[in-house]
Amino acid sequence: MAVSLKFNNFQNKSISLPSRSHPTTIRIEEELNKIKTSTSTSTTSCADNICNGLSQLVELHHFMDHLLVLPATQSLISLDPKATWVEEIMDSSMKLLDVCNIIRDIVFQMEEHVQDLQCALRKRNDHTGIDNSIANYNSFRKKTKKNAKELIMVLKQSQKVMGLVADPDNHHLTSLIRVLMEVAEVTISLFELLVIYISASDLKCNGWSLAVSKLIHKGAVACKEDEKYKGTMNELEAVDVSLLKILRNGVEQTPNNIMQMTLCRLEDMLAKMQRIESGLQCLFRVLVRTRASLLNIISL
């Protein structure tokens, strides 16, 4: 989301504020740089990287909420609550909430399918149960890939060039608009990565998230048949490969070591999904609080 600041006179609408950025604004900018730097240089797996990114986003939005409740910030926004940039921020906050909720629901459903697979595989003699669980999981994965394309389109539509009006004599307003846009941008970018990860898709992303998306492969592990993963795969792709082997061999003919390997991969995948869900729960709560703060301000 590129931000273009157009400087015009507000006539009598501008308010007198210190020319330097507020400490909270500076802290937000520091957190933004920290997220971008840590994500682009991380050597951890993509799932771990996303979980860390979610934790950092929660911290970032906490600072953002603190900035929004400052009297100076409230004065700036309430001065012209129907300004284009205010409306854009409100629209962006709603979209972020919606997407976060959708992704959270997908992750939760994925956990349920993984647990169902684990239960079925542990009952080795229930061949029909295993076949049904795998079929249900594969159907869900196909649906997830389809939904992922739609979500990416929504996120990309949010990454648009905006012409925003700012008073050149009001540095606080300029800084406020910039950090609001950048926080939205980095949140959208991480959502893109998360959608691509949970769909194990080859969807492409733009901007900052393009550089970070390399971690999907950087964090993958090359290995042989008797190791944890084969080829360069994330946790979801590894599970897909294991389940495909079971389907090809047939449940009765599948060696016990492949069954055990599949269970291990499912356990690994479930742990990652639970961490991601926890991060999304925390992020969703802080996004709700931020939107409530914005609504309170424009209603003043």
Automatic annotation (TrEMBL):
Pfam family example for this protein?
Answer: BPS1
Tree of life domain: Eukaryota
Q: Which InterPro entries does the UniProt entry name for this protein?
A: BPS1_pln
Tell me the Gene Ontology biological-process terms attached to this UniProt entry.
root development; shoot system development
PANTHER family cross-referenced by the UniProt entry: DOMAIN PROTEIN, PUTATIVE (DUF241)-RELATED, OS06G0725500 PROTEIN
The identity of this protein, by name, is DUF241 domain protein
